[in-house]
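Hey, can you fold this?
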Amino acid sequence: MSFSPKTENLTQELINAEYLNAVVNHGEKYNSLHEGYAVLLEEVEEVKERITQIDEWLESYWVCVKLNVKDLSKQKLEEIHTNTILAISELAQVGAVLQKIKNTIVEVKE
């Protein structure tokens, strides 16, 4: 699936916003590449948790669809939507961490 240029731009804006927040709160680079790796690993694990939650809600939604339980189906869709937003936010943090790691690599090379 290809994304529209607008979606790609908005995604980069999300990453930039998270990066700027990280810089304000924690500086523009890590103390070491090891620290950067640890933070990246944590953020990726959080993304996986959100995706797992989406998958679980999707299975639950499918049961509601098969049983034609519309009110509960709506609730399941809301949970999927909420977790999708949280997953996107976590992925934006992954992008921000990657930028900080790139800054750290530049510092290490010099």
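Oh, and this one too while you're at it.
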Amino acid sequence: MNSEITYSAAGVDIDLADEAVQRLAPHVRSTFRPEVLSDIGGFGSVVAIPNGYEEPVLVSGNDGAGTKPLIAKALDRYDTIGIDVVAMCVDDIVTLGAEPLFFLDQITIGRIDPDRIEQLVVGLAEGCRQAGCALTGGEIAEHPDAMAEDEFDLSGFAVGVVERANIPSKSSVSTGDVLVGLASPGLRCNGYSLARRVLLDGRPLDQPAWAGADSSLGEELLRPSVIYAPAVLEVFSELEVHAVAHITGGGLPGNLVRIIGADVEIRVYPSKWRTPEIFDRIATEGPVSDGEMQKVFNLGIGMVLVVPADQANKTIEIAARNGHEAWVIGDVMAGNGEVRWVNQ
């Protein structure tokens, strides 16, 4: 007679998963808002809608960090990649003026490692604190055979709330508006497959990112994503915002075209902002064409707000109060729904 087989012998260790969850509790609770009505360990997150809304609308978004976790794995550093995942989600929903309320994560891993999972959640909690939302739960899924023991993937989704009357629409963007771009000091989470192909071609991650760089290549590639949500919400609360674009996959052209109607066009002036060195290195060492760089990377602009021209300076001031450098990087004119890259 064959001896009994256990779930652990098949590759899934429930006891280790329970240990991991217990270690996560203080990190998760540190993010709770007053609206959180549930606690860790339940079957669902219970969150009340904040007071003060006349017609509240829920806005949700989900995302991951692309192939950036491969850099975290190579460096054996897992405490920042969660910030990236939160950033990708909350900065999507804030484009509609939504205040991020809560976030749930999905950790899929080949073999449960409580230390690594705790570090992943440390990053998620930090991202939620920066965004002002609560980390209310998630899922740890051990996938033996489907993934190698040291492989993992991290994703999640955010839910926010906005007054229905305050949701911006494409029809609000009109001739004479300007684009205020908020600086991104690095890649954030986009274009990593191309960046890794170019920059990791036999080059050690512990060497300087480039001659004269203050950081190693690994540090540069693992640089956490900026979270823009609080700054964008402050602009929404004080000024007239016609549209907002989160600059992720597709770059400036691919994301700006999503926020305008067919009767206007956007002109972008790349000379108006400072492009971080890493983008120049990718373009030169690839080599990668200008057109390809524009549609893959943010090129130093992580978020764009479209506002009336007379509110541009105030928008830049609010961005600065929140720690973001910002510039007027473009304008809106009559057109046919296109985004034009104008070199001056």
